[in-house]
Amino acid sequence: MIIGIPREVKNNENRVSIMPAGVNELVREGHKVLIEKGAGTGSMISDPEYEKYGAIMLDTPKQVYEEAEMILKVKEPVEAEYRLLQRGQSIFTYLHLAANEPLIKVLLEKEITAVAYETVEEKDGSLPLLRPMSEVAGRMSVIIGANLLTKYNGGMGVLLGGIPGVKPAHVVIAGAGTVGINAAKMAVGLGANVTMFDISHKRLAEIDDIFYGKINTVLSSSLNIEEETIKAELFIGAVLLHGKKAPHVLTEECVKQMKKGSVIIDVAIDQGGSVETIDRTTTHDKPTYEKYGVLHYAVPNMPGAVPRTSTIGLTGVTLPYVRLLAEKGVIDACSEDQRLQKGLNTYRGEIINKDLSASVGFTKISG
């Protein structure tokens, strides 16, 4: 198979979808790997490192897209890349389509076979290709939140962990999945007072055991979340519904009651956002905006800020799937592997993923 790796163009996205070791494996197995020059520089990987293991370096993304049978990326194609996608081509990347109807329409119109990292699913319901980036985003959310709480960044001037004689900040985490638990690890480690919400009593019991009761665990409801959040300095939205838009768990009315200078970090922004007052995505260049005196952070590619760690973590888990897709072909691989079946989002002009079609309300473009 001819596999193409273009340079990521999303704002401040410095990750790359393959490491030199991955190129080595694919080339040894008889595949052709095309990489846009400079694709790895943001993750401290030089072009010669790729060439050493047999990659063919191309000058422009147009060359990569035109020749490749399967495009391997980190983030979803942005508008500037839509025209580069070739009819009938395959793509393997994070897509988060439930919150991106313009991209859905492009994929359907061009009959792209799209496999999304975030919907590849193990038998136990876990999401192996989302996990490493969720770990990064969860840990970053607390670091970023702690930084934004400083006065010079617009926050109320609170030290997350406090000091002897001064109470620590109160952190509310909505969602006890991979993002939530990693956020909790960082928040507890920094000495914050942490309350975590989830809809699953079983999951909260597990969290209680993991943290030996150091975290307050509460079953999720609108009232419970509101009561805790209006007392909090930092709110982290970490909810996830597989393939669907994130629900709003924090209402505008609640945000109005939050402390002035408090901070909201919405990690669920990739899936549309979990906070009612998050009405736009932000970027690493301009990460926040203020509403009702509360700082809102809604950057959809948080792990792009630590690209070296993120690239190594991501490509380590995606490579076995890339090898399978390249060996079998995308459709045969998806037919034979139940995990990849869940990852298949669009094929021949139709939405294949049931959760996605239910979320957006259609399976193909009408008319």
Major β-sheet annotation = 8 strands, mixed
Strand order of the largest sheet: 3-2-1-4-5-6-14-15
Q: Separation of termini?
A: 34 Å
Helix content: 25-40%
What CATH calls the topology of the largest domain is Rossmann fold
CATH class of the largest domain, named Alpha Beta
Number of discrete domains: 2
Unreliable stretches: none
Return the structural class. alpha/beta
Using the alpha-carbon principal axes, give the shape. Answer: globular
- Using only CA atoms, what is the Rg? 21 Å
Strand content: 15-25%
Descriptive key words:
single chain, 367 residues, alpha/beta, Rossmann fold, eight-stranded mixed beta sheet, seven-stranded mixed beta sheet, 14 helices, 15 strands
Task: Please provide a brief summary of the model.
This protein has helices at 20-28, 47-52, 61-67, 79-82, 101-109, 131-148, 178-189, 201-210, 222-229, 252-257, 307-328, 330-336, 338-343, 354-360, and strands at 2-5, 32-36, 56-58, 70-72, 90-93, 113-116, 170-174, 193-198, 216-219, 234-237, 263-266, 288-291, 294-297, 344-347, 350-351. The protein is 36% helix and 16% strand.
Report on the structure:
The longest helix is centred in the C-terminal third of the chain and has 22 residues, at 307-328. The protein has two domains: 2-111 and 307-360, Rossmann fold; 131-305, Rossmann fold (3-Layer(aba) Sandwich), CATH 3.40.50. Helix 6 (131-148) packs across helix 7. The protein has helices at residues 20-28, 47-52, 61-67, 79-82, 101-109, 131-148, 178-189, 201-210, 222-229, 252-257, 307-328, 330-336, 338-343, 354-360; strands at 2-5, 32-36, 56-58, 70-72, 90-93, 113-116, 170-174, 193-198, 216-219, 234-237, 263-266, 288-291, 294-297, 344-347, 350-351. The chain has an eight-stranded mixed sheet, sandwiched between helices. Strand 7, helix 7 and strand 8 (193-198) form a beta-alpha-beta unit. The protein is globular. The chain is an alpha/beta fold and 367 residues long.
